């Protein structure tokens, strides 16, 4: 544990973060991730707070990297984030997380994926309740 704290303090220092301001190692880790993405992606200052909030709300580094790009506008970022928070897989989100899709187009794709996931889960639930799952295994 000491080694991890030492590593985090060293990394925080390299990023220009005063680690003594953080009592909780989890908050320091979130700050390190936020600052790293902010620096690496050369984002506008307002996006830094958004990224930190997303880490605090449970999104992973890999998920945040999907939209932490300067070419995305705010509406596009929201659609990517909503897909992740809605339970879409990284692969599903990657299909519409492209700067050439406007926010309206992204929303339509995201909603279709969410409806599809809901319908599949409902179908699986109905099969499990009916007891006929063996007959349908080759289709599911």
Could you please describe the fold and organization of this structure?
The chain has 140 residues and is mostly helical. It has 8 helices and no strands. It has helices spanning 2-14, 25-41, 45-56, 61-65, 74-85, 90-96, 103-130, 133-136. The longest helix is centred in the C-terminal third of the chain and has 28 residues, at 103-130.
What keywords describe this structure?
140 residues; elongated
Fold topology:
Blueprint: H1 2-14, H2 25-41, H3 45-56, H4 61-65, H5 74-85, H6 90-96, H7 103-130, H8 133-136
**Structural class from helices and strands?**
mainly alpha
Say what oligomer this is: single chain
How many separate helices? Answer: 8
Shape: elongated
The major pleated sheet works out as: none
Q: How large is the radius of gyration?
A: 20 Å
Distance between the termini: 45 Å
Number of strands: 0
Low-confidence stretches: 136-140
Helical percentage: over 70%
Strand % is under 5%
Give the SSE string: HHHHHHHH
The pLDDT mean sits at 82
């Amino acid at each position: 544990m000491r080694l991890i704290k030492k590593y985090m303090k060293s990394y925080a220092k390299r990023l220009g973060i005063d680690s003594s301001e953080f009592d909780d190692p989890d908050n320091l880790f979130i700050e390190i991730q936020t600052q790293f993405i902010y620096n690496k992606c050369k984002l506008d200052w307002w996006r830094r707070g958004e990224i930190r909030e997303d880490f605090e709300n449970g999104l992973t580094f890999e998920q945040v990297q999907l939209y932490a790009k300067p070419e995305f506008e705010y509406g596009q970022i929201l659609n990517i984030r909503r897909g992740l928070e809605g339970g879409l897989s990284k692969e599903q989100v990657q299909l519409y997380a492209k700067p050439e899709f406007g926010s309206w187009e992204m929303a339509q794709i995201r909603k279709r994926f969410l409806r599809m996931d809901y319908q599949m889960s409902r179908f699986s639930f109905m099969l499990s309740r009916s007891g006929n799952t063996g007959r349908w295994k080759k289709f599911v």
